[in-house]
Structure formats: C-alpha cells, structure tokens
# Entry
Amino acid sequence: SLSGTAVATPKSTSSSNSSASACVSYTWNGMTYSTSGSYTKVLTNSVGCDSTAVLDLTIKQPTTSTTTISNCVSYTWNGTTYTASGSYTSMFTNAAGCDSTAVLNLTIKQPTSSNTSASACISYTWNGTVYSTSGVKTFTTTNAAGCDSVATLNLTITPQPAQPTLACYQSATF
# Structure
C-alpha cells in the first residue's frame, strides 16, 4: 500500500489573441494606446500561471479640412446658405469611421448701387454713352470688392427749344 504519496496535478499556462480598432486611442488592460501595433500583456490566470494576452490594434484618425471662400451676397456650403462672413463648422464621419471636421472661413462681399438724377438739353453723356431721350438708364460694372455695381440714372432730356435759351446752352455738351 502506498502511503504518503502525493499526486501532482499539472497547472497550465493560457493565452488569448484579440484584435481591435478605435479612433484616436484605445484602453486595454489598464493601458491606453494611441498607435497601431501588436501589444502583449502577461497576466496571471485563475490557476496561478502565466496568461499571455495579445492585442492587434488599429488606431484610426479623425480628419480636418479647411476651406476659405470669398463670395458676393451669399454662399451655399454643405446644404446651408450663408449670408454673413464668419467661420462655420460641419461634422461628418470619415471613411475610417472617425470624426471629420470641415471648417469654412467665409467672407461675404456686397454689391453696390447708386442713383443719380440729371437734366440736360438735347443729350447727356454718362459712363461713356450719349443719351438723347429721357428715361431710367442703368450701367452695371464690378465694384472694388469684385461684386456687381449697378448705377441708375434718372434722365430728363429737354428737346432743343425753337428759340435757344441760356439755360440750355449752359448745360449742353458740345
């Protein structure tokens, strides 16, 4: 008979492999990682032996884009029409599944207009054009901001009288 003989039960080590992906950083077994790679952590398993855990980690990054626009009157960006200068932000999800921040730096420029009234005998020269009839005349050009500039002339032409008058000769263009 055997007495005092002990029977040994073997203990075994264990291991586990896992993979993960995250935007910016990932916390695993109490450590925070911000770089893609393979990480190993040796722990103690339930029977007191080494347990090796391996993490294959992919860190994805958010993206940011900035667009600078200068436009007359208004500008439509990402479905929204803006009429005031400013910095506007839209948030999306990029192809990696992370945040994508789009920034619009917008300058809104304005058109200009002017109204002038004039009277003349026979004809009137305005912005390089000679007019001989009364009416509302418009001239469109580009202002210093690069937008439309519309000048309006309310013109009254007095036909040449049968007898010349001093007033008519003083305002006539020869």
The CA atoms of residues 19 and 53 lie 11 Å apart. The mean pLDDT is 89. DSSP finds one helix and 15 strands in the chain. The radius of gyration is 41 Å.
